[in-house]
Hints:
- By secondary structure, the chain is an all-alpha fold.
- It is 82% helix and 0% strand.
- The longest helix is centred in the N-terminal third of the chain and has 30 residues, at 34-63.
Amino acid sequence: MTLRREWIKRVTVGELVGFTAPALTSAALAGASIGAQVAGLVGAGAVEGAVLGLAQASVLVRVLPTLSRRKWVVATAGAAALAWLLGMLPAATHQFWAEWPVGVVVAVGLPLGLLLLVAIGVAQAWVLPAWRLPWVALTSAAWCAGLAVFTAVTTPLWQPGQATPLLFAIGLLGGAAMALVMAAVTAQALPRLARLQATG
């Protein structure tokens, strides 16, 4: 199996396994206060990031032997928690911005959305020995594509009043699609990282 295929396999599985934490948390806290949902999902996001980081590092160390697995996992976990916090902010603060002009909402929302997309890539880039800016760009594109696929899969399926097991199953289906897309896009970095390592 080529390194790229190994990355896609491990990262897809790792992200999907990690995503079960926020999927279960979201389903369990569906009727809870927004504060409880934010706290629960930020914590679950850290778990998701840690599992994803472990899966990624298990392949990256073959290309970058000096990479610190611990730092990579910690960076990914922290960034994933931040991404979930940013993702929950619109719902948590809805009462404050609900009557703002559309232009103001867009002006505030776009930078927050951009920060969400780059969070993991920026955090991981600090751990990479080289190719940092391209990694941020590639991972941002990967998460943008993955989240778009997740939305496309889950939005038509989620309906009001559905049972918790069904909500969880739909979330996992979307999570699997998101994980595969994200893994496939980020796999494109491996040949470049291998060449950089080879040339020193």
